[in-house]
Design goal:
Elements: H1 13-18, H2 31-36, H3 55-72, H4 99-113, H5 122-130, H6 136-153, H7 172-187, H8 198-213, H9 217-233, H10 247-271, H11 293-306, H12 311-317, H13 326-337, H14 348-371, H15 388-400, H16 405-409, H17 421-437
Helix pairs in contact: 4-6, 6-7, 6-8, 8-9, 9-10, 11-14, 13-14, 14-15, 14-17, 15-17
GO molecular function: DNA binding; DNA-binding transcription factor activity, RNA polymerase II-specific; zinc ion binding
Pfam families: Fungal_trans, Zn_clus
Keywords: Metal-binding, Nucleus
């Protein structure tokens, strides 16, 4: 028995209502509430004991009361896929994403990244923003979009946007990292895998872009594979998928598939990764929207640049296969050299992406020629000589002077070879020098 000076332990509201022994300390969430998926509170005024009732019925009433409370506070879908209220760990951070920041990030995306990532629709994105208050999926996608813009492109926050608390004191990239953590944390309380949607696949792609911008290659690759897996679960690789459904959604799904196709190949070459997506569907319709024709022209050209890098090439690149024909590699090198027209009918940002990607891919083919033992100082084909990297490097460096600094710095994450421009140039010079000296 407790002494008169020792205060009696008080049961939390839920345990008191259910007439069960409260396993808690009076301040921390008790074990019963954690197990039942209830919010542990101590708000009720102690009353006299009443008759016992059905504990199961009381538990259902408590869950329903808390669910209704969450609806009134603006989070009607904060219930887990098992029907239980989501843990407070998944509740959104109030004030973290002011409307002005969302608007600025969306405008930046459409003004700079959209030509290389034409996967969003302006009106649909506004509808998504409007549904953020009652949709976890919409909230996570918009926050991921903002995170990607901030981390990958280092967009500056407009001075008229008031940020929440200490967030206003950190860098643009730091803010992007905070937004990325928020989106991923909240998404853990939402079941996006069993019934994937276009929004969930795009969200995973933006996670990839954000981690790529933060130089976390392994985590970036994980989320890229998550995006490609969601795409396959939705049947984006099957042309039959696009014969029914909303026209705009089908259009964006098709574009997302090809963007993932290009991005996966870029990283397969850069990091020796395997492939999951293949050219199994038709390309996007270039005349779908006449106002987007320049964007789509450039987008299709980058897709065509990467199409030759199929399972055969990647298997050789990853040393899964060992034998190939020098004539086949020489043909691929010639195909890359002639792949782009002299005048590119696309935006400057896309042109920078295309030109640097072209020369970077030439470098990758030459490196495979080296590993296969096909390079020789006596070769009649210039692409099979030790001097060829110098030619690639010269062409690559010349490209950097053709475009503005903004066009070189702001690029679509699907065309990440721009991020490897200096690496490719260094590799070219290193290989050439080593071969001449060695």
């Amino acid at each position: 028995m407790s002494s008169p000076s020792t205060p009696a332990k008080r049961a939390c509201d839920s345990c008191h209502r259910r007439k069960v022994r409260c396993i808690g300390e009076g301040t921390n969430p008790c074990k019963n509430c954690i197990s039942a998926g209830l919010t542990c509170t101590y708000n009720a005024i102690p009353q006299k004991k009443g008759p016992k009732g059905s504990r199961a019925k009381v538990l259902s009433e408590l869950r329903e009361t808390q669910r209704q409370s969450q609806i009134l506070t603006g989070y009607p879908d904060e219930l887990g896929f098992d029907g239980r209220p989501v843990s407070s760990a998944f509740i959104r951070t109030p004030g973290l994403l002011p409307p002005g920041l969302v608007e600025s990030c969306v405008e930046f995306f459409f003004g700079n990244l959209y030509p290389s990532q034409p996967i969003l629709h302006r009106q649909r994105i506004q509808d998504t923003i409007m549904s953020m208050e009652h949709s976890t999926e919409a909230y996570c996608m918009i926050v991921a979009l903002c995170a990607c813009v901030m981390t990958q492109s280092n967009m500056s926050v407009p001075p008229n946007v008031a940020l929440h608390g200490d967030v206003g004191q950190i860098s643009n990239v730091g803010l992007g990292a905070v937004l990325l953590e928020e989106s991923i944390r909240v998404r853990r309380g939402h079941d996006y895998i069993e019934n994937p949607t276009l929004l969930s696949a795009i969200t995973s792609f933006f996670y990839f872009g954000s981690y790529f911008g933060l130089d976390k290659d392994n985590t970036a690759w994980f989320h890229l594979r998550e995006a490609t897996t969601l795409a396959q679960l939705m049947g984006m690789h099957d042309e039959e998928t696009y014969k029914t459904g909303d026209a705009i959604d089908c259009s964006r799904m098709r574009r997302l598939y090809w963007l993932l196709f290009v991005t996966e190949r870029t990283h397969a070459l850069h990091k020796h990764r395997p492939l999951t997506l293949h050219a199994t569907i038709h390309p996007p319709n270039i005349d779908e929207d006449i106002s987007e024709r320049p964007h789509m022209t450039g987008f299709l050209q980058i897709v065509n640049l990467y199409k030759p890098f199929d399972d055969t090439f990647i298997s050789l690149w990853n040393k899964v296969r060992t034998n190939c024909s020098p004539a086949w590699l020489a043909q691929l090198q010639n195909q890359l050299s002639d792949a782009l027209p002299t005048y590119l009918e696309c935006t400057e940002i896309q042109a920078a992406d295309l030109k640097t990607s072209q020369h970077w891919l030439r470098m990758m083919v030459w490196q495979l020629c080296v590993s296969q033992g096909f390079v020789s100082s006596m070769a009649t084909d210039n692409a099979m000589t030790f001097k060829y990297p110098i030619e690639i490097s010269r062409d690559l460096l010349a490209v950097t002077h053709q475009f503005s600094q903004q066009a070189m710095e702001v690029h679509g994450v699907g065309l990440v070879s721009l991020g490897f421009i200096f690496s490719a140039s260094y590799q070219a010079l290193y290989h050439a020098s080593f071969c001449f000296l060695g």
